[in-house]
Design brief:
alpha+beta
Length: 977
């Protein structure tokens, strides 16, 4: 009762049991509090994803073009990386194979030799432990797993004594020096010719068993089971052993052997490890006098991109190992790797330098196509904004749409890149392919940062253009469409004019450096020290195109003003459209200009590189065929001054396949000036025959080769010198210089010579040493006999150099030191560096053309949605279909004509300005002669015409197809632009 009253007392704070929520209810509220935001986010993302899929499906054609853009972008970017990796793999395999051929060692192997010392006394267990340390050091520093470790433990020098009372040996003198060795894994590398088989892991024998090299056994006449003694040099320790067998190496050239075992191991007595530990270790101190370890790393896992790391890893290991092996000597393949890294550096600079314009165009293409798509979708974006969707949601929507495209486009682009890299391997010249062994293209060549960077550019371009469209309303868009008041972003902010400054700066820097190869000193990364120089060709093309497009609206306005004079209605409509909507054509027209400019630039680059290769070879050789006469009789006889035994030059001229021939000599020379003395080379020539035989280029001198020869004719003691030599020594034409010329062994002349002419370049004359060109007959006149010389030949077209060389033997002499221009040219054309250059040029050109066409198709397909209503109205008021197609055709004829003229002009100018700077080769410095830009006129005009016709045809096909499918649908739905 009390409790009942108490519970009902007014003011009581006891809660109503019914009002207290159960624990399960409180937990559910907490769960809703935690998961409802996540559910809302997932629901929003799901809705955006459905919208993205719906728009991709609705704009299937536009989405397909955007997807193709992603595929092409990723494919073009990755193809260069895949190709470079494959070429690097070929070159690395070639260098390592050559290293193995010369050294008979595996490519990634290191050898460590160390003697026992008081600081580190050797026994068998210690040298095995040290072998593990050495192997671990090399593997960790180089970054490759261990494949094999070979240990050679040597007891040091011992004296081999004959058995007691053995009548085969007179006296007790030592029979030979010898050493006991244990070599891990040797059982598989030897053949036991006689005796018991050798087993590496055999248990200890009852007595010391030794296997002798068969050469030593034959020398001593041993029999299996004979017992001999070994004594230390001071005779304080003796060992008795039994001959268990005679061995020979299975393959003396195998990498297993440190040196030829038939030369270096004939006096090595082979024992098993257990016998060494049981019989040798207790007797000798130290038990192991010297140890040699050969550590072989797994070259199958070596990647060319890490060659520099491998080289530095071997160098670090060579520094670390002597710290715990104070007297250790480490031999590594660092020189071979250093040579490869140098070639890799040159190849990287080559491919990057030639690929930069294409990559610049690729980035430009990605930005412009994104802008085109966003421009034609701007009304839809504004409509979404007017329905309450935030800008952030629209950007999320665009991000999801891009992600879906990347999900399909990125893998397809990587496959395209692999295919393009494989195709590049078959390149012989620009747009020319030959059948050869396929390159080892693999996914190891993928450049992940570059691929992600490309996708990032695509994503940023899409988001940026979408964000710009999301700021506009339907009213502002309609007003802008009716009477455009703004130009593109770069047009409004004068970006094109601002780009002139860095372009001029970079060009001046190029002029100062001389060539792209001068940017690379040690590593490919040196190219990035001044990245503007790498980008300048592409930067120039884009800057020129932007400036050309600044004049485009002005020209279209002039056409708009003249439209009233045109009586043909389609022409009038076309000119009005161009004048009123010129801004809408800027982006796609820019693609046309840049694409054609890049095509012309690439064609000219390819033609120039082809010509320059031939020029380099002929500059090096001097003529079609050159050789030094050789007579075995003269070579075997007593040395005599001169070379009267060489037949007259007329005999060589008469050989089949020879158009002309000349004698050319090269003599060691010293120049004596009032304030200087230095070595030089005297090039003695026949002034009448030389110009008919030698290869010479017009820019080699300010006057013709015939004019230079006439100067030599006026002064028998005349010499031609380089302009550089003349300037550096303050000399003038007519000055006399003292020369010491050594035309043959034991003879020399010191006479004053007259400077009669100058050249800038001369066949076979490099920068060092100084080359003087003079009269051969004048040199001969001092001795009365013909001096040694070479024979230069100009061959008839189609002549076989091998047949000509065979015919030389009919003159009674042989030919040595032969140089054939065609053979050298063929060898140079097969080099992977050249394959990479022309493969890059070919792929860049094809990709640029495809991207330009794809950009125009994207623009045409997108703009079709806006113009369909206009065309429908024109059809409704009486215009015939062919008149509307004529209007569109005229528009694209004007656009393509403007783009073709501007693109060709830009490409030609870019070729003249920048092609000479691509004088790059694998060697040091820029090779001679200079690269002369060649404008491929025979290919440029057909290229421009074909490109223009294809572009116009594609546009007309797209527009024409629309008339048959969607005109009346557009008229029914009303104006959507």
């Amino acid at each position: 009762m009390a409790s009942s009253l108490q519970s009902s007392t007014p003011g009581s704070t006891q809660p109503d049991p019914k009002s207290v929520p159960p624990a399960s209810s409180r937990a559910s509220r907490k769960d809703r509090f935690l998961f409802e935001p996540l559910q809302r986010t997932l629901s929003t993302l799901s809705g955006l994803a459905r919208m993205a899929l719906w728009r991709i499906r609705y704009y299937s054609g536009l989405s397909l073009l955007a997807l193709l853009g992603v595929i092409i972008a990723v494919g073009l970017v990755t193809s260069a990386a895949f190709f470079a990796q494959a070429v690097d793999q070929v070159m690395l395999d070639r260098e390592l194979a050559e290293y193995s051929r010369i050294t008979q060692r595996p490519p990634f192997s290191a050898r460590v030799f160390a003697p026992s010392s008081p600081a580190v006394p050797f026994d068998l267990a210690r040298v095995e432990a040290l072998g593990e340390n050495v192997a671990d050091t090399l593997a960790s520093e180089v970054g490759l797993p261990i494949r094999t470790v070979i240990l050679l433990a040597d007891s040091g020098n011992l004296r081999l004594l004959p058995p007691a009372n053995d009548t085969r040996y007179a006296g007790s003198r030592p029979l030979s020096d010898a050493a006991i060795i244990y070599m891990s894994g040797i059982a598989e590398q030897i053949t036991v010719a006689e005796g018991a088989p050798f087993v590496d892991d055999a248990p200890p024998s009852a007595e010391l068993s030794v296997w002798l090299h068969q050469a030593l056994g034959d020398k001593l006449g041993v029999q299996i089971g004979d017992r001999y003694e070994l004594a230390t040099p001071n005779g304080d320790q003796r060992l008795t052993f039994v001959v268990a067998g005679l061995w020979t190496p299975t393959d003396p050239k195998s990498y297993f052997w440190f040196n030829d075992p038939n030369q270096t191991m004939t006096e090595k007595l082979l024992v098993t490890r257990s016998d060494y530990a049981t019989f040798i270790a207790p007797v000798l101190a130290p038990s192991v006098r010297t140890a040699t370890w050969q550590v072989i790393l797994d070259e199958t896992q070596a990647l060319p991109a890490r060659a520099h790391d491998y080289k530095t890893g071997f160098e670090r290991a060579s520094f670390i190992i002597p710290r715990y092996l104070p007297s250790g000597r480490v031999t590594t393949p660092t020189l071979t790797l250093e040579k490869f890294v140098g070639q890799q550096t040159a190849l990287t600079s080559l491919l990057l330098g030639f690929n930069v314009p294409g990559l610049a165009f690729l980035l430009y293409f990605l930005v412009l196509t994104s802008a085109v798509i966003a421009y034609w979708q701007r009304r839809e974006t504004s409509l979404l904004r007017s329905r309450g969707i935030s800008r952030a949601s629209i950007l999320h929507f665009t991000l999801i749409e891009a992600g879906l495209l990347f999900l399909v486009g990125a893998p397809a682009g990587l496959l395209l890149g692999l295919g393009l890299a494989r195709i590049m391997g078959y390149t012989e010249s620009f747009l020319e392919f030959v059948q050869r062994s396929p390159l080892p293209v693999s996914v190891y060549g993928i450049n992940l940062p570059l691929t992600l960077g490309t996708l990032g550019v695509v994503l940023v371009a899409k988001l940026w253009t979408t964000a710009s469209s999301a700021r506009e309303t339907i009213v502002t868009q309609t007003r802008e469409h009716a009477r455009p008041t703004r130009g593109p972003f770069w047009y409004r902010n004068y970006i094109d004019l601002l780009l002139i400054v860095p372009t001029l700066y970079a060009y001046q820097q190029f002029l100062r450096r001389g060539s792209l190869g001068a940017l690379v000193q040690n590593r490919p990364e040196d190219l990035y020290q001044d990245p503007l120089l790498i980008l300048v060709p592409g930067l120039f093309i884009i800057t020129f195109a932007l400036i050309a497009m600044r004049f485009f609206p002005l020209l279209m306005r002039l056409l708009d003003l003249t439209a009233r004079l045109v009586k043909w209605l389609p022409g009038y409509l076309a000119l009005r459209q161009l004048g009123r909507q010129s801004h809408a054509y800027i982006n796609p027209l820019l693609l046309v200009i840049v694409s054609l400019a890049l095509g012309v630039y690439t064609l000219s680059m390819a033609a120039s590189m082809d010509r320059w290769l031939a020029d380099r070879v002929f500059h090096q050789v001097g003529a079609d065929l050159t050789f030094t006469p050789y007579s075995e009789t003269e070579a075997m006889g007593e040395a005599e001054i001169g070379a009267d035994w060489v037949p007259p030059i007329d005999e060589f001229k008469a050989l089949p396949g020879v158009e002309h021939a000349a004698r050319v000599a090269s003599y060691q020379t010293e120049i004596f000036l009032p304030n200087a003395q230095f070595e030089a080379r005297f090039m003695a020539i026949d002034r009448l025959d030389f110009p008919l035989t030698a290869w010479f280029r017009n820019d080699y001198a300010r006057e013709s080769l015939g004019g230079l020869m006439n100067r030599l004719a006026q002064f028998p003691d005349g010499v031609l010198v380089s302009q550089e030599f003349l300037d550096q020594n303050a000399l003038n034409i007519g000055d006399r210089i003292s020369l010491l010329v050594i035309p043959d062994f034991g003879v020399r002349i010191r006479e004053p010579f007259t400077v009669v002419g100058v050249y800038t370049y001369f066949p076979t004359a490099e920068s060092e040493p100084v080359v003087l060109v003079g009269n051969l007959e004048y040199i001969i006149s001092f001795f009365g006999v013909t001096m040694p010389h070479r024979i230069w030949m100009r061959l008839t077209p189609g002549a076989d150099p091998t047949a000509v060389l065979s015919a030389v033997s009919t003159t009674g002499i042989g030919a040595i030191e032969v140089q054939t221009a065609t053979e050298i040219l063929n060898s140079e054309q097969a080099k992977m560096e050249r394959v990479g250059v022309f493969g890059t040029l070919t792929v860049s050109f094809l990709a640029a053309t495809l991207m330009a066409g794809l950009g125009l198709l994207t623009y045409s397909y997108a703009s079709l949605h806006e113009r369909l209503y206009q065309f429908s109205v024109l059809r409704a008021v009486g215009l015939r279909r062919r008149e509307i197609i004529g209007q569109v055709g005229l528009e694209y004829i004007v656009l393509t004509a403007y783009g073709a003229v501007a693109g060709v002009a830009c490409g030609i100018l870019a070729a003249w300005l920048f092609v000479p700077f691509f004088r790059i080769s694998v060697g040091q410095g820029a090779p001679l002669p200079p690269l002369i830009p060649i404008i491929a006129q025979n290919e440029i005009i057909p290229l421009a015409i074909v490109f223009s016709l294809v572009m116009i045809a594609l546009e007309l096909v797209i527009i024409s197809s629309a008339f048959f499918t969607r005109l009346f649908e557009a008229l029914r739905m009303g104006h959507q632009g």
